[in-house]
Design a protein that fits this description.
Length: 254
């Protein structure tokens, strides 16, 4: 070891991988590292795999199916030992057919893909939305609105399922429940909140799709005369670190 240091020897991982058939590299593909949720998720993956002596190759597809395909191909060319993927919106089973054919160990993260035989890990969105809506109803809010998210995606459907279960159990009138989906971004939350304010938000309880959407909602409300906690209630899902630094601090499901 001392001689190797003196000579400036660098371990040749590529040569070793020919013998072991393992590169020690794993691919992580997320939607956007600028999103604090995915930034925290990336940090957790890198911390764990770093302790395991693995190297993480990181890519972001920005919800572009073409970019996702290029990233997968690039990582396969780099001979990754496995992939962790947050699928882009619109991903189908066919988009992952090559991974299945090559038998590359793959885990889907936070977003399900129907009819694909791959492991999945994600939050319990149904229970999260269920508990959040019950919280809003307990605060005597007369109208419930789910704001944000991509309508029709599994993660959005799961939140709607939780909302529906809670309102049904509490015998909350269906006519007073509204779903407004347009994306899972701050801008989406801001725009939809502005739309809601314009239509009137009498004693409303808002469930934000996630903390990023909630940040946009809070910005829109700060521009209005409505005060969170007095005129309306707002609760979200994810519990990212920045949620406690919002004004006011965000109620959010962990």
């Amino acid at each position: 070891q001392e001689s190797a240091l003196q000579l400036g020897y660098v371990y040749n991982r590529a040569a070793a991988s020919l013998r072991s058939r393992q590169t020690g590299n794993l691919g992580l593909i997320v939607s956007s590292v600028s999103n604090p949720f995915f930034a925290e998720l990336t940090n957790g993956v890198e911390q764990f795999l770093g302790v395991e002596g693995k190297t993480v190759l990181l890519g972001q597809h920005s919800e572009d199916l073409g970019a996702q395909k290029r990233l997968i191909n690039s990582m396969l060319e780099s001979r990754v030992d496995g992939l962790i993927i947050v699928p882009a919106y619109g991903t189908s089973a066919d988009d992952f057919s090559r991974l299945l054919t090559l038998n590359i160990p793959t885990v889907l993260l936070t977003r399900r893909i129907s009819k694909v035989n791959l492991h999945y890990i994600g939050s319990d969105n149904v229970s999260g939305a269920y508990e959040a809506v019950r919280h809003l109803i307990a605060h005597k809010r007369k109208n419930i609105v789910l704001i944000g998210g991509q309508v029709g995606t599994p993660a959005h459907n799961e939140r709607v399922e939780g909302l529906t279960r809670a309102t049904r159990e509490e015998k909350f009138p269906v006519s007073r429940v509204k779903v407004m989906g347009d994306g899972a971004t701050r801008q989406s939350g801001f725009n939809l909140a502005k739309e809601l304010i314009a239509s009137g938000i009498d004693n409303v309880g808002i469930l934000a799709y996630n903390d990023i959407v909630a940040s946009g909602i809070l910005a829109a409300l700060r521009d209005s005369k409505h005060e969170v906690g007095r005129d309306l209630s707002l609760i979200s899902i994810d519990d990212i670190e920045s949620s406690k630094f919002e004004t006011p601090a965000l109620s959010t499901v962990d």
